[in-house]
Structures are given as structure tokens and as C-alpha cells.
Design a protein that fits this description.
Layout: H1 4-17, H2 22-32, H3 40-53, H4 57-71, H5 76-89, H6 94-106, H7 110-123, H8 128-142, H9 145-158, H10 163-174, H11 180-193, H12 197-213, H13 217-230, H14 235-247, H15 251-261, H16 272-286, H17 290-303, H18 308-317, H19 322-331
Helix pairs in contact: 1-2, 2-3, 3-4, 4-5, 4-6, 5-6, 6-7, 7-8, 8-9, 9-10, 10-11, 11-12, 12-13, 13-14, 14-15, 15-16, 16-17, 16-18, 17-18, 18-19
Length: about 325
């Protein structure tokens, strides 16, 4: 009939008639946490009675863990005792470890939580990676980034595809706490496995930055190009990609990027437009579009009449203009 309150009344009556019958006490414990109006202390007392009557250690560990979770609401000390009893009954029961760790976190006992997680990770291989990452996060909170890095690395050794550990190492690298070469396979994996566009874009930007710092300009351009595809409106990323392509003399790809950056020219910061026009001009010249090159170098000089690179390019384009040649000679 799905009437928990009536069922609880029946169990309470049965308990008065036959005190501490295991099935009755188990029923009381089960319903006490579900029926509204039962105080947390009464529900906890019912759970503790049930624990005392359970003879199988593994089952008792489960009941003690439930009691520990409920005790966290009223008494941290009692909750600690219950979690410790649960772990003694079944050292491999993961929820007991999780409950105890969350209690230590709430109490600000992060160092104790780290020790518990590291020790538990040695005993329960199936939870090793997750718990080592949790321990690493607590180390970061305590400012111990060296130990955190090692724990994250150990987590990846246990589970090479662990995204949390990889992402944590990437974050530490952004703060200067990791070797760049270590990040390459991690970022490559994150870029392959991440579906969320915003997060993926962040990893691609970081991958591009790392590649550039390691001297891999091709890898930097490829990663940055993917990031730009995910957010074509990001001016800084588009400019950085255009500059990379320009430096690599990939004029066909660089030119439209620079032209796109000039679409809202009046909104650009002061001093940016002349350089963009100049780069469009150089790209156009290298592609044989001399008319466009002359147009954009002319705009650059209109904005900044003494722009050195623009004057030199103008001289390259206007070979029959004595004035342009004289101006270029004076700059030499």
C-alpha cells in the first residue's frame, strides 16, 4: 500500500511485543529514515540498534555507514566512530571510506583525509584512481602542489584515461607547476575525449600554447585553428592564429583571417588597424594581388604616415614612383 507511516507503527508495536527481534529492528531502521516527522536522533538510534543485531560484518559495515551519514547531521564525533567501525568490519567497503573522507573534509581535517584516501587506494584497486585524484585535490587546497602532482600522476598510471587527473595537471601547469613536455600526451588525450565545446576550446588553446613553447609551430597552429573554429568571434585567438600563419608565410590562410579582423575596424583598439592593413597588404602582394596590396598599404600610411614597414612595402609596389623610392632609401 506504500504507507510507510502505517508500516512504522506496526513495526513499533511488534518491537514492544518482542524486543530486539532482528527483522523488526531492521524494519524500524529502514523506515525511520524515510518517514517524515521522525527526529534525526530517533532515526539514528534505530539504525544503531539494527547495527548491534547484525552478525555479518560486511552487512554491518553497510548499516554502520548509513548510520554514519545520518550522524553527520547531528554529531561529527559519533559519525566518526560509526565510520571507523564500518571500515573495521569491511576495510574494502568504498562508501565507508567516502563517508569518512567527506566528514574529515567538512571538519577541515584535509591532511587526515589525504592519508585515509592514499591508504585506502592501496587496498582497493578499483577505486585507486578516483581516490588519488581526491587526495590530490586536497593537497592543492593545502598548497602542497608537489605531492598533488605525484598523486595525479599515480592516478593516471592506474587509469591512463582519467580526465580529472589530466585536467588537474593541466591546471597546475597553467600556474607553472608542471613540465611542459609532460602535458603534451595529457592535452592530446583531453582534446580527443572532451565533448563540451567550452572545455575543449580551453584545452586546445593550452595545447597550442604548449606546442609553441616547445617549438612545435605546426602543432600550435593546428590546435589554435581548431579552437578558433569553436569560437570564431574570439578576436585574440583569431589574431594569434593569423600571426602564426603569417610568420609561416601561409599567405592564403593568413589573409582572410586578417581581413575578417578588419570587419569592425572602428571598434578595434587604437593602433591595431594599421598593422592589420599592412599584413593584408603583404599577404596580397605575396599572392600576386598587387591592387589589393596597394590599397591596404595606402590605408596604413593614411593612418600612420611614417609607418616604416608600410613605406618599405609601398616602395616595393610603386617601383615607378620616385617619391616612394626616395622615402624607402631614407629609411635604409
Amino acid at each position: 500500500l506504500d504507507d510507510d507511516a502505517a508500516a512504522l507503527d506496526s513495526y513499533q508495536e511488534a518491537d514492544r511485543l518482542d524486543k530486539n527481534h532482528p527483522d523488526v529492528v531492521a524494519g524500524l531502521a529502514r523506515l525511520a529514515v524515510r518517514v517524515s516527522g521522525i527526529s534525526e536522533d530517533d532515526a539514528l538510534a534505530a539504525l544503531e540498534r539494527s547495527c548491534d543485531l547484525v552478525t555479518d560484518p560486511k552487512e554491518r559495515a553497510r548499516q554502520l555507514t548509513r548510520a554514519g551519514e545520518l550522524a553527520k547531521l547531528t554529531s561529527w564525533d559519533k559519525a566518526q566512530t560509526l565510520f571507523e567501525r564500518a571500515r573495521k568490519d569491511d576495510p574494502e567497503y568504498a562508501p565507508a571510506v567516502d563517508g569518512y573522507v567527506s566528514l574529515q573534509r567538512d571538519r577541515g581535517q584535509l591532511a587526515d583525509a589525504i592519508t585515509l584516501l592514499v591508504n585506502a587506494a592501496e587496498r582497493i584497486p578499483g577505486e585507486r584512481a578516483r581516490w588519488l585524484v581526491d587526495a590530490g585535490d586536497f593537497c592543492v587546497a593545502l598548497g602542497d602542489t608537489d605531492w598533488a602532482k605525484q598523486l595525479y600522476r599515480d592516478a593516471r598510471a592506474a587509469d591512463p584515461g582519467n580526465q580529472r587527473a589530466g585536467a588537474a595537471l593541466v591546471e597546475l601547469a597553467e600556474d607553472g607547476y608542471c613540465d611542459l613536455s609532460e602535458l603534451v600526451p595529457i592535452l592530446d588525450e583531453l582534446c580527443r575525449s572532451t565533448d563540451d565545446p567550452a572545455r575543449l576550446r580551453g584545452y586546445l588553446l593550452q595545447r597550442s600554447k604548449v606546442a609553441a613553447q616547445l617549438g612545435d609551430q605546426t602543432g600550435a597552429r593546428v590546435a589554435l585553428s581548431r579552437a578558433v573554429d569553436l569560437d570564431p568571434e574570439d578576436f585574440l585567438s583569431r589574431r594569434e592564429l593569423a600571426d602564426m600563419l603569417y610568420a609561416a608565410q601561409q599567405w592564403v590562410k593568413a589573409r582572410p583571417l586578417y581581413e575578417g579582423l578588419l570587419v569592425d575596424e572602428d571598434l578595434l583598439p587604437k593602433g591595431v588597424a594599421p598593422d592589420l592593413h599592412l599584413r593584408v597588404a603583404r599577404s596580397a602582394k605575396e599572392l600576386g594581388d598587387l591592387e589589393a596590396a596597394a590599397k591596404h598599404v595606402g590605408i596604413t600610411l593614411a593612418l600612420v604616415p611614417d609607418h616604416r614597414e608600410a613605406l618599405l612595402l609601398h616602395a616595393e609596389l610603386a617601383t615607378d614612383d620616385p617619391g616612394a623610392q626616395l622615402a624607402a632609401a631614407n629609411l635604409a
